[in-house]
Write a structure and sequence with these properties.
The structure is a homodimer.
Chain A lengths: L9 H19 L4 E2 L1 H8 L3 H8 L12 E2 H12 L5 E6 L3 H7 L2 H5 L2 E8 L8 E2 L2 E5 L3 H7 L4 E4 L6 H11 L3 E4 L12 E4 L2 H13 L6
Parallel strand pairs in A: 3-4, 3-7, 4-6, 7-8, 8-9
Antiparallel strand pairs in A: 1-2, 5-6
The first copy, chain A, binds a DNA duplex through helix 3.
DNA sequence: TAGATTGTTAATCGATTAACAATC
DNA sequence: TAGATTGTTAATCGATTAACAATC
């Protein structure tokens, strides 16, 4: 059981969203209890890994019954910081950027898109959902004024670092990088890569080696 | 140096796209040689990890000079299967699906979108770029007829498994899952999660614990 | 040549799995 | 109660890092 001061291992943090998503679904289906074995089965893990992972959050299971889905969902959300609204901005109003602004799943999981920006003055002023595309010069005031924690980079790869630098100067504390480029940031700004093309390349490798010995 | 029969560790495969992207960029910038230290520096790794990783591909560096960017890019592409065109289909013609169909980066890295599908008959027939949205019943013939290796799931999370089952039956060998739901597939079909929302939740955790001891 | 950098072996570190006492 | 399931400790496994001989 985790005291608020220590960080969980990254490997554990990366699995927590899966537990959360699945537990929320069980709740919607009115399932009240779930065991480590059932979670493992559903998510392709071992029950041992599940119990180890859940021992990091501030929540206890019950012998012979497992974990209450209500309590588990709440604790997981709290552990991840998914119990509060997180404001994000999207930089890049191309196809991908627009899709992210309009992505329903974000709002449903507590991520609110508070602004969309583009360097191209031709698209500045266009409407994306309820938002207007703004010029990059407006980024700092939006980040400060609306308490934006996260910036999403959805521009061509070659502009990724430049956009990251803008976001960092504007004061975001986390960056979601949708490009294939590596982005450098100071320690105080967390960077996570979404790696869409890289994921396809992983698949390409997996397909190529299907049948080869492990 | 890797013989074609053994698979590389997943941890290595996940880093190869980063080496490839960076090396391609160096080539564009007319940089002919790169050392393991330079690669490590640029990508946030150690030079030891870089040398270990590159020892898995069929390519040798040169003492005192490092790796030829031309040779490295070619070998990495070959190792990943990125030297041939991979046909993909996108299932889901919502905002995200459409954005992926139109995503320039795919074509540039050798992924060709050969079809886009949706279960909603209202959007079937609409145009996305040069493609028409097709009904789900057309999926099997497209996958077979056009030798499609990969299906991308870009539908609401609750329909993810159903779409995965369609793709599997149609004969794809890999699935890129853009939803938060876990997707189950037989061993012969590789699944990679893009985890956009999960990545935001990772960031949310990182932000929440910024300043906490590691 | 001297010095820099590779490829590889050995050491360390961390993550996963197994095992089991505690418990409801 | 008996049996199932947790939380945790110990064992295993794999990934990363360090070290260094070989080499250009």
């Amino acid at each position: 059981m985790q005291t608020e001061q220590t960080k969980m291992p990254a490997s554990v943090v990366r699995r927590l969203p899966k537990y959360l998503t699945h537990t929320q679904r069980l709740r919607r289906e009115s399932v009240a209890w779930v065991s480590s074995m059932e979670l493992a089965e559903a998510l392709g893990l071992t029950s041992s890994t599940v119990r180890q992972d859940l021992s990091h959050i501030d929540f206890c299971g019950v012998s012979k019954r497992g974990y209450s889905t209500a309590g588990l969902a709440t604790s997981l959300a709290e552990a991840l910081g998914a119990d509060r609204e997180v404001c994000v901005v999207v930089v890049g109003a191309g196809n991908l950027g627009r899709a992210l602004v309009l992505h329903d799943e974000f709002a449903r999981q507590g991520f609110k898109v508070c602004g969309v920006f583009d360097a191209d003055s031709d698209v500045v002023g266009e409407k994306v959902g309820r938002l207007l595309v703004q010029g990059m010069d407006r980024l700092p005031e939006t980040v400060c004024g609306k308490d934006v924690d996260v910036g999403i980079i959805a521009v061509p790869a070659k502009a990724a670092q430049e956009v990251a630098d803008h976001l960092i100067l504007s004061g975001v504390r986390g960056i979601l990088n949708m490009t294939a480029a590596h982005v450098v940031a100071p320690d105080k700004v967390a960077v996570v890569d979404a790696r869409i093309v890289a994921s396809l390349q992983e698949l390409s490798y997996a397909i190529k080696t299907q049948g080869a010995r492990t």
